[in-house]
Amino acid sequence: MSKVLPLTGNEAGAEAMRQIAPDVVAAYPITPQTELMHRFADYVADGVVPTELILVESEHSAMSACVGASAAGARVMTATSSQGMALMWEILYIAAALRQPIVMPLVNRALSAPINIHCDHSDSMGARDTGWIQLYCENCQEVYDNVVQAVKIAEDKDVLLPVMVCYDGFILSHTVERVEVLEDHEVKEFIGPYVADRPLLDLDHPVTYGPLDLQDYYFEHKRQEAEAMRNCKPVIQRVAGEYELLSGRKYGPFDEYFTQDAEHIMVCLGSAAGTAKAAVDELRDAGEKVGLLKLRVFRPFPAEELIAALSHAKGIAVMDRADGVNSIGGPVFSEIRAAVYGHSSAKISNYIYGLGGRDIDIDMMKSVFQDMKDGKYAEQAYYIGVRE
Amino acid sequence: MPEKGWRELPIGGKILQGGNSVEYETGSWRTYRPVVDKAKCINCMRCWLLCPDSAIYAEGEEMAGYDYMHCKGCGICEEICPVDAIEMVLESEKDKIPADERGVKAIEEAREKAK
Q1: Does residue A261 share a domain with residue A193?
Q2: Same-domain check for residues A208 and A236
Q3: Is the pLDDT score of B111 beyond 90?
Q4: Share of chain A above pLDDT 70, in %
Q5: Given an 8 Å threshold on Cβ–Cβ distance, is A221 in contact with B15?
Q6: Is the model's pLDDT at A237 over the cut of 60?
Q7: Cβ A139 vs Cβ A179: under 8 Å
Q8: Into how many domains does chain A fold?
Q9: Domains of chain B: which residue ranges?
Q10: Residues of chain A contacting B10 with CB distance shorter than 8 Å
Q11: ipTM
């Protein structure tokens, strides 16, 4: 039995963390993640969760403590945003390459400079090749559901990779929505007990973590990591199936919204998908064959599934809330175009939007569909919502 | 040691047994090989004491040659030797060096053990 609560995205994340009750959480506060950890720290202080909460002096230390605790055999979580994750950077790679199944809500916020506390995806998109699984959320319900599923995905023996659950700063983190929450025991049974793979504190089976790995073995270990990322596609599907049985809510690598017969499809991720759906609704009412594909899983990148879902389209517009600053386009665009290359004759264009929390509204979304209808495509990204 | 493919190796670069660094042939890193002239050596054992890789054999109270499987050729033994009994010789010229049977045997034993 689930109950319905009015929760912000951060509260939804904290509620999931309370139910998961990790052995160790190491974190440092940063806007807009602060409220999540504030809430979780209350649970620890009140004795609601048995978690060892390590209050560190920086995010570099937070992720380092997480890696150490995870290697020791603990179920570990943290959370951060923007500059915080930038400071974690070198340890992100280490967490993934040491195959530690750490789960981290990442409350998306623009990177400095200029300094800004509002949402864009430049933090998580910069970390797309660190070896972390990335799940993106459209609303606060998805924040809760993805955090719970992330634990089970990360800890699967065929995966053993860390997971980042990305959700939009302020737009979701500080907005109250209706969230259905599972019973504590349901979450506990769903994720099951954590059994670490050869933990450091298993003194009967001594093991070395992080030895020097030179020309003769490093490549093999990176190849293993790549395979784990491939393996986690069916695991994400299986976990979603089990979660649907429990919650009644369906998850996949992406959501298709009126895409099946659509001539023009928009691809986006995060909270903007809600605005895009409203635009699709209005255009469908006017008889236009338009649809939206909302990406949930960006790592591993669901290329085969995307080809099947997109290749019939005449036009594809990819929305990026992070600029690649590469003179071509954003990261979602680059990967979508690479995926469908050779499989589709669709024209593909890219729109950079919403940097630093700039709002995007239904009319702007509709203008993107109008561009496709008018045959307006470009090799370089369009910037939408910026003052010329 | 035959090198395993990525499917056979423990994940994450972990080493699943303790005390196995002896199987790692660090001697292949060496550019210069230390060679001892036992006619000059006074068995002061300073080289044995200071070798950072414990790659010098001692038998009773005598310096008894090198473990070339692990000697990295750092040259500390040559530097510290008070009677200049140790010479660093280029590995590429090691054929000119009289065979150190003890060192060769040690490498073979270690390789056998690692299999």
Answers
A1: no
A2: yes
A3: no
A4: 100
A5: no
A6: yes
A7: no
A8: 2
A9: 30-114
A10: 198
A11: 0.87
- Domain extent, residue A370, equals 254-384
Nearest Cβ partner for B15 among A160, A197, A208: A208
Q: Output the DSSP codes for A256-301.
A: EES-TT-SEEEEEESTHHHHHHHHHHHHHHTT--EEEEEESEEES-
Residue where one domain finishes, among candidates A198, A231, A247: A247
Shared-domain flag, residues A169 and A230: yes
Residue B20: the pLDDT is 82
Q: What whole-number distance in Å separates Cα of residue A119 and Cα of residue A295?
A: 17
d(CA A273, CA A257): 10
The last residue of a domain, from among A247, A264, A295:
A247
Is A112 within 8 Å of chain B by CB?
no
Total residue count of chain A as it appears in this document: 388
Q: Are A259 and A220 found together in one domain?
A: no
Distance CA A213, CA B80 (A): 32
Q: How far is A50 from chain B (nearest CA, A)?
A: 29
Confidence band of B107 (pLDDT split at 50, 70, 90): low
pLDDT for A262 equals 98
Judged by a CB distance cut-off of 8 A, whether residue B4 touches chain A is yes
Domain identity same for A145 and A259: no
Is B2 in CB contact (< 8 Å) with chain A?
no
**pLDDT value of residue B17:** 86
Give me the phi and psi of A279, to 5 degrees please.
-65, -45
Higher pLDDT, A124 or B24: A124
- As a whole number, the mean pLDDT across chain A is 97
Residues from chain A that touch B18, judged by Cβ atoms under 8 A, are: 206-208
**C-beta neighbour count of B110 within 10 angstroms:** 18
Interface of A with B in 326-385 (CB under 8 A): none
Domain B30-114 has CATH 3.30.70.20: yes
Q: Within a 10 A sphere around the Cβ of A292, how many other Cβ atoms?
A: 29
CA distance B104 to chain A (A): 23
If asked whether residues A232 and A271 sit together in one domain, one would say no
A286 and A193 within one domain: no
Span of A2-16, A36-50, B21-35 with lowest mean pLDDT: B21-35
Measure in Å the smallest separation between the Cα of B112 and chain A Cα atoms: 20
Paired tokens of A335: 């990967």
Q: Do A217 and B11 touch (CB under 8 A)?
A: no
Has residue B98 got a pLDDT over 70? no
Q: Which of A197, A207, A224 sits opposite B9 (nearest CB)?
A: A224
The closest of A30, A143, A39 to A88, measured between CA atoms, is A30
Q: Give yes or no: residues A128 and A226 share one domain.
A: yes
Q: What is the DSSP letter of A73?
A: T
Q: What is the pLDDT of residues A294-323, one digit of tens each?
A: 999 999 999 999 999 999 999 999 999 999
